[in-house]
Known about the structure:
The complex is a heterodimer of chains A (385) and B (1103).
Chain A: E1 3-4, H1 10-13, E2 17-22, E3 27-34, E4 37-46, H2 52-56, E5 64-68, E6 72-73, E7 92-95, E8 97-98, H3 111-117, E9 121-124, H4 128-138, E10 141-147, H5 154-163, H6 173-176, E11 182-184, E12 192-197, H7 204-210, E13 214-219, H8 225-230, E14 235-238, H9 249-260, E15 265-268, H10 270-278, E16 282-299, E17 305-317, E18 324-326, E19 329-337, E20 343-348, E21 353-356, H11 371-384
Parallel strand pairs in A: 4-5, 5-7, 6-8, 7-9, 12-13, 12-14, 14-15, 15-21
Antiparallel strand pairs in A: 1-4, 2-3, 2-10, 3-9, 4-10, 11-13, 16-17, 16-19, 18-19, 19-20, 20-21
Helix pairs in contact in A: 9-10
Chain B: E1 9-13, H1 25-39, E2 43-47, E3 63-65, H2 71-81, E4 85-87, H3 92-104, H4 107-110, E5 114-115, H5 120-127, H6 129-143, E6 151-154, H7 157-167, E7 172-176, E8 186-188, H8 191-204, E9 210-214, E10 220-228, E11 234-242, E12 255-257, H9 264-281, E13 286-294, E14 301-307, H10 312-321, H11 325-333, E15 360-366, E16 387-393, H12 396-406, H13 423-430, H14 437-446, H15 451-458, H16 462-480, H17 486-494, H18 499-506, H19 510-519, E17 525-528, E18 542-546, E19 560-564, H20 575-590, E20 594-599, E21 614-617, H21 622-635, E22 638-642, H22 648-659, E23 664-665, H23 669-676, H24 678-688, E24 695-698, H25 701-711, E25 715-719, E26 729-731, H26 734-743, E27 753-757, E28 763-771, E29 776-787, E30 797-799, H27 806-823, E31 827-836, E32 839-846, H28 853-860, H29 864-872, H30 877-883, E33 901-907, E34 933-939, H31 942-953, E35 961-966, H32 972-984, E36 987-991, H33 993-1001, E37 1007-1008, H34 1024-1029, E38 1035-1038, H35 1046-1059, E39 1063-1064, H36 1067-1082, H37 1090-1102
Parallel strand pairs in B: 1-2, 1-4, 2-3, 4-5, 18-21, 19-20, 19-22, 20-21, 22-23, 35-36, 35-38, 36-37, 38-39
Antiparallel strand pairs in B: 6-9, 7-8, 7-9, 10-11, 10-13, 11-12, 12-15, 13-14, 15-16, 17-18, 24-27, 25-26, 25-27, 28-29, 28-31, 29-30, 30-33, 31-32, 33-34
EC number (chain A): 6.3.5.5
InterPro entries (chain A): Anth_synth/Amidotransfase (IPR050472), CarbamoylP_synth_ssu (IPR006274), CarbamoylP_synth_ssu_N (IPR002474), CarbP_synth_ssu_N_sf (IPR036480), Class_I_gatase-like (IPR029062), CPSase_GATase1 (IPR035686), GATASE (IPR017926)
Binding site for L-glutamine (chain A): 60, 241, 243, 270, 273, 311, 313-314
Amino acid sequence: MTTSIQGNGSQSKRGIPAVLVLEDGRSFRGRAYGAVGETFGEAVFSTGMTGYQETLTDPSYHRQVVVMTAPHVGNTGVNDEDPESARIWVSGYVVRDPARIPSNWRSRRSLDEELERQGVVGISGIDTRALTRHLRERGAMRVGIFSGEAIADEAAMLAKVQASPQMKGADLSAEVATKETYVVPAIGEKRFTVAAVDLGIKGMTPQRMAERGIEVHVLPATATVEDVYAVNPDGVFFSNGPGDPSTADHPVSVMRSVLERKTPLFGICFGNQILGRALGFGTYKLKYGHRGINQPVQDRTTGKVEVTAHNHGFAVDAPLDAATDTPYGRVEVSHVCLNDNVVEGLQLLDQPAFSVQYHPEAAAGPHDAAYLFDRFVSLMEGQRA
Amino acid sequence: MPKRTDIQSVLVIGSGPIVIGQAAEFDYSGTQACRVLKSEGLRVILVNSNPATIMTDPEIADATYVEPITPEFVEKIIAKERPDALLPTLGGQTALNTAISMHENGVLEKYGVELIGANVEAIHKGEDRDLFKGVVEAVNAKIGHGESARSVICHTMDEVLAGVDTLGGYPVVVRPSFTMGGAGSGFAHNEEELRRIAGQGLTLSPTTEVLLEESILGWKEYELELMRDKHDNVVVVCSIENFDPMGVHTGDSITVAPAMTLTDREYQILRDVGIAIIREVGVDTGGCNIQFAVNPEDGRVIVIEMNPRVSRSSALASKATGFPIAKIAARLAVGYTLDEVPNDITEKTPASFEPTLDYVVVKAPRFAFEKFPAADATLTTTMKSVGEAMAIGRNFTEALQKALRSLEKKGSQFDFVSPVGDKAELLAKAVVPTDGRINTVMAAIRAGATPEEVFEATKIDPWFVDQLFLIHEIAQELGAAEKLEPELLAEAKRHGFSDAQIAAIRGLREDVVREVRHALGVRPVYKTVDTCAAEFAAKTPYFYSAYDEESEVAPREKPAVIILGSGPNRIGQGIEFDYSCVHASFALSEAGYETVMVNCNPETVSTDYDTSDRLYFEPLTLEDVLEIVHAEQQAGPVAGVVVQLGGQTPLGLAQALKDNGVPIVGTSPEAIDLAEERGAFGRVLTEAGLPAPKYGTAFSFAEAQAIAAEIGYPVMVRPSYVLGGRGMEIVYDEPSLAGYLERHAGLISEHPVLIDRFLDDAIEIDVDALYDGHELYLGGVMEHIEEAGIHSGDSACALPPITLGGFDIKRLRASTEAIAKGVGVRGLINIQFAMAGDILYVLEANPRASRTVPFTSKATAVPLAKAAARISLGATIAELREEGMLPKNGDGGTLPLDAPISVKEAVMPWSRFRDIHGRGVDTVLGPEMRSTGEVMGIDSVFGTAYAKSQAGAYGALPTKGRAFVSVANRDKRSMIFPARELVAHGFELLATSGTAEVLKRNGINATVVRKQSEGEGPNGEKTIVQLIHDGQVDLIVNTPYGTGGRLDGYEIRTAAVARAVPCLTTVQALAAAVQGIEALTRGDVGVRSLQEHAEHLTAAREA
Lengths: 385, 1103
């Protein structure tokens, strides 16, 4: 969706105007940031104060224009270690005060340069808080950013925004997932093999498994049940990813087969929604989603609260109060977000499968939920015993 | 799991007097805690010796003990009240240390009192350097991150000297264990410095222990504020990054929230380490603060220290995020978990989350080195600032510039117009951290320094350096622009430039810039501090200004009263003024107004978003206040602005606000000016037939010479228009007068010098009164214990007066009424009188809330500031008597005979300061105020009340032992009787030869000791200074000798400070102390709550 025009040095861009236009007609005027041109996507805001590099490269943000509520972005530049995938996925980037110089011993280049290099159109210098409040009150919606010569009269820009595709009903996993299977080797002694279905997986997820002695076979989103079992897995994993879970019929059917075979199963984010659907629950779009690294989630099995990283615009519609019977046995909601009681995790009671809506791999974000990877390991250990 | 049901009553310990390193933030946290506990249905018992606090208001706790915070007194309170639990984590190091010693001496066990919010083992693990090192090692073993600086623990000077070799040589950091605000710590670059700093540190440490550490100067410094509940849920409330790198105490650094220059990975390492530490230390419930150093070269993380309690940083973090740490800590202490406590601001989300900010907070320290000219102004790991200002902006530059102008100090804002200095010189100067180093850096940038050069000199992170360059570039654009285009003006405002700065750059007047700006429609909007970056709707109107698009100020119906606070704490304008502002807010809210507080001091109760209906966390400059008034006038009716309660800061704005059409309520700006302006005030006195000491106003030495000669020496000289007696001195002869004018050339260039007759031997009297235009309510009459010439803020005083009779009170009342009427007061007035012989002189009048309002209010059980606020808005004293806010009959001048006696004592910051040679600074009191805080002793008789005030301020008076007496000639006569009393109480007297001679002639035995100037005797006889250092002296009486033999006294008094020996520097104080010692010797010094005192007083009033 992004079209990029030529790049300029960041200093000379200070004067290039840019306009952000929301599908309901509200607009904000600022300055170009990153690439100059036009771009469209779903406007969402992220409240994390650190971790912009991880956010930008998280495939779940595909086709979204991310508004950073933290005013200063780019202060630590861009390094080669922190990206969560090989490229920036956001379709547009909105910040208030971009850094003029990066400062960090690991920094290799500035964020502005990186955005420009990857053709990501952004806007800076707007009232990001006003925009965030607007999205909070009206809900996530389509947006366009226009800079330099792409700026037209408001009506024309608005028409373009309104003509751009919706997030609801979008099937995007295949666009972001790997095309070829690849293997992330276990760190240290190999204990398990996991087949990870890539629906938009973040680099930290296989890393967290590898740290626990798991050899991770990352499979394309289109992988079949046969592909999954071809690696002879001890466990199967379904990753996070972009788009509307109600469109993800293929992964749901693969998941059902895994459930039938009672292979230990773990899902994160999109993977949680797919488990929900596989069990017969519906999914729905949240008004403005959860995107940040400060969300309180309660593990209902222990009562403990963990501060967690979130990035989801959809959620599973499951009853909080009691276990539900499904073709695969009883399931209960294991985790909830204390801010709004959204379902944040599902756990099957009669077979080894669970999933969470948030991000225990936490890049960016707190490491409070890392224990879930240990839980996955125990399921696989249990199956073996 | 909700509240514990086995606790019905809790004892909360406050932090005592305001001192450097332990200030108003503990009133904020303690007040929050008491309110929370009370709302949970618990009986709250409070002890705090500081009357100038909201927490000691009788409504805040069920039983409020304004008694010394010492294990002895707290035990008496426990024995009387028998609380179930003791909450020690909200009163700073004072409360924590007191609680630990009561645990250790078995008092808590004896009375079955449970420590909540902290356990002794955790406190030790957190605060004991050696144990904490073990904690960090254990954490590293678990999570692979975090280490301590290499260090050695020492208990003797020999161990210290050996320790340096172990660490690989100088420089080393010296840190005494268990001291507050880093007292006694510092960098030693050689053996001489080491001996001095470590020697002092060993003395200061209650465990005679110091830690030597490898130097990590120049590293990046961070702090995390964490909270943990009993279910082991842990949240990081706030990250703070120090603008000044390692080497400057965080209390003296400019600090920024959130951290600006960490990637998520690095931040998460600090978070993981922080959480692992709070668990390892075993803080069961509550908050803690952990400080880190990060090597900018490779990210190596060193854990510097932790405070297992609420701290100055946690108050800052609470204000910076909207997450009230103390309030939540109190809830956790009584059994709640974080997920059971709602977030006040959103009301519907829980406290078990981590606040996220969509703004930047900058805190800047306020220093008072001008009060201690001998003190070394280099910033080190010992905290030296006396207050701080916080500012919120939508970016760093805006927050920084707002913070700098909030400091309200000449030269604190960036200056872009003075002549450009020498780059090399400025860079060299910037190497040493001092008050205002950031301004030096800006001057270096103006002089052409490169970012690399600035970093090289200061080690300030390059991102921050670039932000300073950004500010400089905008200043240059402003200067170069042909005209002020709206885009450029808006850009400058978005980076925090004040109208005054823009005016200076453009060569315009500030009001012209403002007019242009308003004409161009460039005005601020107000955003909300909401803990969640707008993710959820905020219910609490806690605002800051920003030059952005959308304002969040909601319309309202009720008339608003805007109360201007007092800005950063400084000597002469401290927590007392905040107290009055908070009271006004409470009283006006009750009276049906919508209260709007404006202040920029994060340590205070006034900037708690719970205090007023709306809070604007903004600088108190004309520009910022005018914009707030405008915003509030857009939102609904504004009844007026209250300026008379926040001290000199709002008072100074009164006239300009009025000139800009802002309604000022209470005493009019013209009346304020009348009292400030000497000539006009003189006419008021003449009309009322009141005598004032002879005085004159001089613009030159010749004039000063003539005036002084006419008045007669000694004279008191001072610059006009200052608060806290800044630059005020007693001058005994003409050469000294010439010297004074030379030294203060800077201060008096703008304002003339006032020369007053100095009333030697006069009794000084302070009066606080209310006046409504018809009736006078005499709030209280305070008799100073020190004679006239000691600044009233530094002098101890008694209320009711102990030597004044009914006739004197009558005269004081008549004079006060005449002045209040003549000036045109509507609200509070404070007048200082001097009684010399039989004449009552008027020294000065201040038509505003004074420093003594909280003391007077507590001593007489009448809320004077509340009444003043009501009078400002039109209520009469008669109405307030009717309502019950003021007593039905009588006032503070007609207290019943058996009313309790309250003594206020000032607390001085001497031990904080060293001169450049590392010696202590002199401790003599004078006409310039230098105290940072005060305590109150209250009892039925003067002696006991005085003894309590001393115990609260400096430690208990000794009841036996050796007393050293050495007084100036003029004091020798009045010393004889109290000296005899000391002997009668069993003291052995030591005296220098001259004093001993006088004593002997009067039949009092005294052992002669050698003066310091005489040196050690031939047979090794020690000098008095050596004796003090050896701990052989229990009480010191030393009055200054004029100018001559000053040095001896100086050595004696600084030794007394170093060894914490009570040191009396006036004969009057000696007389009072003797009464106190007598009371202590008699034993049975009891404790009584303010509520009991008030009940007694009310009963007596009505009898």
